[in-house]
Amino acid sequence: MKAADEPAYLTVGTDVSAKYRGAFCEAKIKTVKRLVKVKVTLKQDSSTQLVQDDQVKGPLRVGATVETKMPDGSFHEATISKLTDASWYTVVFDDGDERTLRRTSLCLKGERHFAESETLDQLPLTNPEHFGTPVIGKKSNRGRRSSLPVTEDEKEEESSEEEDEDKRRLNDELLGKVVSVISSSEKTDWYPALVISPSCNDDITVKKDQCLVRSFADSKFYSIARKDIKELDVINLPKSELSTKRGLQEASTFFNTKGVPGNWKMDMSEILESSSSDEEDGAAAESDEEEDKQDEKQEEATLIA
C-alpha cells in the first residue's frame, strides 16, 4: 500500500527501488505508460464511479474535490475516495538492464531499506548473549544486483515472468477499449466488441494470453486470443459500414459517450475493475514470506554448524 503522501503516479527520472528476482534494487524510471484508476463519490447523489485520471479535473489525491466527466460529456463535482496506480513503468538499473514493471513492484528510493522491527533501538546491542541472529539484515543482495552467474533455469523462469507481464500489460492497455474481433479463419469476418474485466463474468475462463470481451453485435461474452483482437478506429470508419455492420452503431455510441448498452446491465466501474494489482501485491507478499522462511532455515543451519 502506498503512503498517504505519495503521488498518484511516478514520473520519468524518479529514483526508485525496483523489484528484481525477489530483491529491491536501485533504478531510475525511463518511461511511463500512465493509467490511474480513480474511484469518486458524486456529491449530487452520493453514488460512486470508477474512472480513469484523464476524466478527472483537479488534484489526484484521496479526499480532494474534483470534477468528473460523465458518460454524457458533462462534468459533475465529486470527491476522490480511492486511487489505484495501474501504470506501467520501464526502469533502468544501475548496470544498464531495463524492465517494465507495475507500480506494486516499485517503491520510492529508501522506503524498504530497513524493517521496522530491526531498528537499532530494538536490537539487543547491549547484551551479546541475547543475539539470536546476525544484526545485519537477512538479504545481503537487497538494494544491489547480484554479480553471481545466473543458471539456465533462472533465466527461463525470469523470461517466463517477463512474458507473463507483457501479456498482462497488453490486456490492461485494452481494458475498456472498443476492438474488432476476428471471427473466422479467413480474417475477413469480424465483429465490434468491448474489452472488459475478467471479473465481469466468472463462468468464462480467461487465460493469460486472452481477453474477455462483450460483443456489441449480440451482447454475449467471449474469451478471445489476444492475437485476434485489434483496437478499432471508430472515428475513421466509413458511414456505410456504420449503418450496415451489426453492432457498430452501439460501438460508436460507446466510443463517443462511454454509454454502455442498456441491456448489458453493467457500468464502467465493473468494466474497468481489475484485480491484477491486488493479485501482484498478494503474490509479492507470499514470495517475500517464502524467501524469509528459507533464509531463516539457512541461518539456523549455519548457527548449529
Automatic annotation (TrEMBL):
Domain Tudor: residue ranges: 58-114
GO biological processes: chromatin organization; regulation of transcription by RNA polymerase II
Molecular function per GO: transcription cis-regulatory region binding
Biased composition (Basic and acidic residues): 294-305
Region spans: Disordered: 124-168, 267-305
Tree of life domain: Eukaryota
SUPFAM superfamilies assigned: Tudor/PWWP/MBT (SSF63748)
GO-annotated cellular components: nucleus
Annotated InterPro entries: ARID/SWI1_ChromRemod, ARID4A/B_PWWP, Tudor, Tudor_ARID4A_rpt1
The entry's keywords: Chromatin regulator, DNA-binding
Skewed-composition ranges (Acidic residues): 151-165, 276-293
Protein name listed in UniProt: Tudor domain-containing protein
